[in-house]
Amino acid sequence: MKRFVTLCAGLFALGSLTAQSLLPDTLLYTYHLHGQTRKYECHFQSSTEGLRLHWRILRNGAWQTGSYTMSPTALTDATSLSLLHPEDTRHIVLPDYETFGLLSTHALQSLKEQGTCTYSGVTYRLKDSTEQALGRPLLHAADPREGGELWVLDCPACPVIWKMRNNPLEINWTVSPYSARTRQATAGDDLKSQLLSCPEKLGSIYYAYPTPFGKRTPEPEGYHPVYISHYGRHGSRYLTDDERYRTVVQLFDSLSARKELTLLGEDVHRRLQQVWADAEGHGGQLSAIGDRQHREIARRMFQTFPSVFEGETPVTAVVSTSQRCIMSMAAFCESLKEQNPRLQVKRLTGDRYMRYIHYSSADVKALERPDAPWQKDYQAFCKEQIRPDRLIAQLFRHPERISRPDDVMMGLYWIAVNMQDTTPELSFFDLFTPEELFGIWQTINYRMYICNACAPTGQQAGPRSARSLLDDIVQKADAALQANVPSVDLRFGHDTNLIRLLALMQVEGCARRETNPDRYYLAWQDFRVSPMAANLQLIFYRNGKGDVLVKLLHNEEEATLPLVSINGPYYDWKEVKRLWK
Fold first, then answer.
1. CB atoms < 10 A from the CB of 40, how many?
2. Residue partners of 52: CB distance under 8 A and separation at least 6
3. How far is the C-alpha of 233 from the C-alpha of 566, rounded, in Å?
4. SS in 3 state form for 43-69?
5. Which residues, other chains included, contact 173 with Cβ-Cβ below 8 Å and sequence gap of 6+?
6. 362-376 pLDDT, tens per residue?
7. Burial class of residue 130, CB neighbours in 10 A (0-12, 13-18, 19+)
8. Which one, of 508, 485, 553, lies nearest residue 227 by Cα?
9. What one-character DSSP code corresponds to residue 208?
10. pLDDT, tens digit, 9 for 90 and up, residues 19-63
11. How far apart are CA 84 and CA 100, in angstroms?
12. CA geometry: angle at 89 spanning 86 and 94, to 5°?
């Protein structure tokens, strides 16, 4: 029988005093599922309900967490492993017949005394006990029918399934002790491997808007949505001006005419001509992909919260004076109107709104200066990470004649990462090794983190600069709630303003502090916080008593705040305002 635990979870410790003396506080579980590797860590907690296993995993730069609770009856008498897959923020209480990542003590006893045990409908036979873990034997058992093998820690208080091999479902894992140093190294390895397998993310703020998972936690009983407040970055666009294309294209044009390009260089030259034919005259403008992103975000907003958009609901859209932002706003509002033509949409733009929609304080401007104190260390970091020699040698017959190789590499990098926003069928990623892309991205992420987010070096200049924007959000929300009729406030601006706002709000994953530049990328990732078309949605709910809750959606995914929630991602609006004062 092939049925075995599909939940890849073998990391845990036991909550009793006996178990605490036997196991480290935290164990690492590394599993391989159909060629993919995932690493979970967890710690134990005993409670009146039994044993609770708290797990977490670093996914896309953010920690996902959850727990499983096993009853005392399950710990002694269960006959099956849980098949429930871990989901972020989900806390599961297992039935009395199931355990999670370990055998019941009766199953362990049967394996030791009778040489066999049946779990999850699979019969395992004891083979040997030659290996050890934590100073105790590992009972090696196998399924003679289909070949699955497991190694169980010989400890009645905590019979951990330490290893699984040859699982017919291709789910195999290994448990190991986990130290703080190992945790840091594992987090870095996990995130880096994810990024190297998805070069688009290494495009920094040019990462095209990802399709949201769409997970939704039901609102608490009696509450219904009444108001939406939003800030959205413009959608995918071309490079900020034509000159960024022209400089690279002209270099290749010139060297091609002098027969100084290699075969690869000539191939790149042909691709650049295709790029320029499309991009000329479009520098900084919204692309067709960016238009589509905003239409789809608006459509999902309407479909997810239809009661807010009923009838003649007033919708106010304030937008930066930038053309790409105006076009993004137009696409968004058109999409809403297509779904309900009766919506009363007001569009506003002009310098008076730039005071909050696209504001940069004097402190931020000083931080961005080339002579700012942090720049010296940053330039040294860039020299370590940006290494153009290999690329230049592959493109040009006389690489020594290229006077500014770093600039050439960076020019090609920006064109390469921008293809996902304009012409995804054309790629330049083959020019770079994964390590080269990773190194370049780290330098860009470094600068964005210091200038806009919560890096201690930036002394909170970026988040403070978003105060006028946050005040606008709070004031308009209070006014809308007092009016007590459904309404929507939309804002359209830029990446840096959204980054600063999320940091000031202390949204999870957007406000972490790290002092080591080599670890900035672990604390904060620009592509995750503000890809093209990034957005923040605040959904307000009210019940019959007039109580108000708010839920935050960051890029349409539920986000958390450093507050005690009412239920999952729902927070008392009064408490949220206290946090943001």
1. 27
2. 15, 44, 45, 46, 67, 68, 69, 70
3. 29
4. EEEEECCEEEEEEEEEECCEEEEEEEE
5. 8, 10, 29, 30, 31, 32, 163, 164
6. 999 999 999 999 999
7. exposed
8. 485
9. P
10. 444 556 678 888 777 667 788 887 767 666 788 888 888 776 567
11. 9
12. 50
Q: Locate tokens 């039935």: which residue?
A: 95
Helix (H, G, I), strand (E, B) or coil at 140: strand
What are the tens digits of pLDDT across the range 96-109?
999 998 999 999 99
Q: Are 317 and 332 in contact (CB under 8 A)?
A: yes
* 309 touches 343 (CB < 8 A): yes
- Predicted confidence (pLDDT) per residue in 439-474, tens digit: 999 999 999 999 999 999 999 999 999 999 999 999
In sequence order, the 6+-apart residues with CB closer than 8 A to the CB of 432 are 199, 391, 413, 416, 440
As separate numbers, helices (DSSP H) first and strands (DSSP E) second, the chain gives 20, 22
Copy the structure tokens of residue 333: 């509002």
DSSP 255-302: HHHTT-B-HHHHHHHHHHHHHHHHHTT-TTPBPHHHHHHHHHHHHHHH
Q: Could you give the residue ranges of the DSSP H alpha helices within 82-167? A: 105-114
Interatomic CA distance for residues 296 and 497, integer angstroms = 22
Question: If you search the block for the tokens 């390590």, which residue do you land on?
Answer: 435
Q: How confident is the model at residue 34, as a pLDDT?
A: 64
Q: Torsions phi, psi of 269, nearest 5?
A: -60, -45
Token pair 């920690």 is at which residue?
63
H or E element at residue 578 = helix 573-580
φ, ψ at 173 (rounded to 5°): -150, 165
Q: What is the largest CA-CA distance in the chain?
A: 83
**Which helix (DSSP H) or strand (DSSP E) does residue 139 occupy?**
strand 136-142
Give the helix/strand (H/E) hosting 490.
strand 487-493
Burial of residue 315 (CB within 10 Å: 0-12, 13-18, 19+) is buried
**Phi-psi label, residue 363: left if phi above 0, alpha if psi -120 to 50, beta otherwise:** alpha
Helix 434-452 to helix 405-422 angle, to the nearest 10 degrees? 90
What's the one-letter identity of residue 326?
I
| Per-residue pLDDT tens digits for 153-178 | 998 888 999 999 988 877 888 988 87
pTM higher than 0.85 for the full model?
A: no
Higher-confidence residue: 242 or 2?
A: 242
- Buried b / exposed e across 84-119, counting CB within 10 Å, b at 16+? bebebebebebebebbbbbbbbbbbebbbeeeebeb
Q: Residue 233: name the closest of 411, 13, 469 by CA.
A: 469
The single-letter DSSP state of residue 563 is S
8 A C-beta contact, residue 69 and residue 51: yes
